Amino acid sequence: MSESAAPASAAQATPQLDPKRWKALVFIAIAQLMVVLDATVVNIALPHAQQSLHISDANRQWVITAYSLAFGGLLLFGGRVADLWGRRKAFIVGLIGFALASAIGGAAVNSTMLLGARALQGVFGALLAPAALSLLAVTFTEAKERATAFGIFGAIAGAGGAVGLLLGGALTQYFNWRWALYVNIIFAIIAVIGATLFIEERADQRNRSRLDIPGVLLATSGLVALVYGFTKAEESGWGSSVTIGLFVASVVLLALFVLVESRIKAPLLPLRVVLDRNRGGAYLGLGLAIIGMFGLFLFMTYYLQGIKQYSPVMTGVAFLPMVVGMITGSTQIGTRLVTRIPARWLMGPGLLVAALGMLMLTQMKVDSNYWTLILPAEFLLGLGMGTSFMPAMNLSTLGIRPQDAGVASAMINTSQQVGGSIGTALLNTIAASATTSWLVAHHTADPRNPFAQVHGYTVAIWWAVGIMFVASALVFVLVNAGRPDHHAVAASGAGAEDGADAIPVVMH
């Protein structure tokens, strides 16, 4: 290359860096925190909401399920709407809609009003979450900056669930369960103001294709059937006709979705997005890891409140080592190393460290000491997951066309949401079965027996350990992207993915 060519090239690259990008990151991160913590902030408030609104035991699960069904089922649709409509606009509309739904839920006078508000939160969350991640992908185009931005975002995505438990406990104990919903209005107002002032999007990064309506209907109904199937499995058993019917329907609908997507000109989910081994490995590895992690959130909440008799606030505080571990793993390990070593050498070992933390928790007893067992186990789990989250988030949109960034971001959110639903139902069922077996073996019938309950938790955690090991193995096998070029730039034109405009990645 001639000497005159280099400065010209540098001059062309410079304008691609958005001068407001770091301020934009703050408000994108606030929005992501709101969406992620909302999956758990309501959990701790649920007993109080149930009592206040006279919700039956049979219907209380719908406060959680209404949100996850709408959110998980509509994510792909939301991601593609962001691509077509513009991510900044989708981001702002998603924030406003989420705040309004939260206000309705907080003001609920009966169970129907609360459940409807939670479903509406899920709808707008499905628009907001992929818009946030795809804005990050098209805003940060230089490899080192991208690593820092995704490190912060990954830490929030991972730690948000634990932060939700802490915030939910504090709001419920010191204020009112309704503030677990009202608090979203504050987050949303701040994020909308920031988005209006600092977030920009180039017109050439939008997708001008028509919306794939058959794809929307098949993907949404297939994902809803899948998430609802796992919910019914927990409630009615794996062998019930309703559970089996939902799983069969899900498989048929999603198979038809793949068939349709492979044949039409402007698909909802271009198959190139998921068939790339690195993105596919990131989606699969993270989805499996979330299965183990979400089940663990549930058991540790039951253990700390039910067995150790912690208050809601103390339960939230007890999760802080996991938050610290996630932030450390994501910002201090993932961010510092992602431009230096291949992604699989962060994700794979990270998941093994998380599995080690879970393995420690299989030794949990009724009288286990928090400081010598729970705290170090939580920290290792957080450290491993934080280290894995960051490169997974980065890989999910690496090398993607800007016009597909929304739907690629939706896929990583979908893997998390579906993984969380599967983990909660699968591990809860395993724990309940193990508890029953312990009671039978010890000739007692009291389901509140603490020794039986802890036995159930530890058996389920063994399964979570196994799932985490499988996730790590899949990452080592599938992910083969090398370290990103330090001067990589994001795809900026319509030609992108496989052409010169895609982010270059060194293959090892």
From TrEMBL:
Its main location: membrane. The keyword Transit peptide does not apply. Keywords: Antibiotic resistance, Cell membrane, Membrane, Transmembrane, Transmembrane helix, Transport. GO terms for cellular component: plasma membrane. CDD domains: MFS_MMR_MDR_like. PROSITE patterns: MFS, SUGAR_TRANSPORT_1. The keyword Zinc does not apply. InterPro entries: EmrB-like, MFS, MFS_dom, MFS_trans_sf, Sugar_transporter_CS. One of its GO terms (biological process) is response to antibiotic. GO terms for molecular function: transmembrane transporter activity. The chain crosses the membrane at residues 24-46, 61-78, 90-113, 119-140, 147-167, 179-199, 211-231, 237-260, 281-304, 310-333, 345-364, 370-392, 418-440, 460-479. It is a multi-pass membrane protein. SUPFAM superfamilies: MFS general substrate transporter (SSF103473). Gene3D superfamilies: MFS general substrate transporter like domains, Multidrug resistance protein D. It is found in: Cell membrane. Residues 24-483 form the Major facilitator superfamily (MFS) profile domain. NCBIfam families: efflux_EmrB. This is MFS transporter. It comes from Streptacidiphilus fuscans.
